[in-house]
Specification:
The protein is of the alpha/beta class. It is built from eleven helices and eleven strands.
Length: 332
Amino acid sequence: MKVFIIDLFLNFVRKYLYLVLALNSMLIFAAPNDVYPARPIRLIVAVQPGGNLDMVGRAVAEKISEGLAQRILVENRPGANSTIGLSAMARAVPDGYTFAMIAQSALVAPRMMRNPPYDPIRDFSAVSLIATVPQMLVVHPSLPVHSVKELIAFVKVRPGKLNCGSSGNGSGSHLALELFNKLAKVSIARIPYNGDSQAITELLGGQVPIKFDNLSTSLPYVRLGRLRPLGVTTPVRSVLLPDIPAISEMLPGYQMSVFNGMVGPTLIHPDILVRIHSEIQRFTQSQDAKQRFAMLGVELQASPSPAHFSNFIKSEYISLSKVLDDAGIKPE
């Protein structure tokens, strides 16, 4: 009982402080400065350097810097499934000088924690979608299936006997498998690895026969014939691989792509959001950038507006939460 009362008190204090900050912020940052931006802007990337989100973040930061005539400084702050960097961004002053790159994990991680350090709906100001990274269902060539339909039939007569490699709990590859099992009414067992790179190594070696993998990672092996593609996780076929069917063609409603976007702390003035959004649009419409990222299996696309991206985040949060609930994945 004592612990319960303390938790209630701390929750009350937290909400009170948040309200005070919100009211103060609205007064202090009611309108953007005429010379915005007057100093460099910080862009937090809550993952290690070198990954897909980092590459997209650095590329868009370079382009935005040109349009704003002010430097965008990329700061990698990985850890705790991205929550360390994102909670730092959420606590930043909402003056338009701190933003962060987000992916699917930004929405999933808080749902898997008993005491999450941020709420992606309450604590983020949406700026724009920047890129979509399709996943691809790939199998080792030794598996005698050549389509999603054949895979489902193959698994149904061998329930629980086929393994699928994935990275950690709540990762894109994990949720893609859980949704596939649910919609296909099959039972493919999950083999978790510390990361996707280890899982893809085991797949290439034949230790596991199946994986849902980022297009950017698996595409080179598909081109070399070392992996066989069965379908992409986008709602429709990817423009990057128009000959490979979408899994939804066999399983209506299936969709589990990874997105990249940009957010800031809540209460950033709308004019600032629109300004940054317009620069992101310019980046995603650049033919040079489009071609460069297409080679990496990344589709560049901006949201029509910050409001559209806000609605997208809310919709994704609801759908991903449902996948977690249906799979029985509880907060830890």
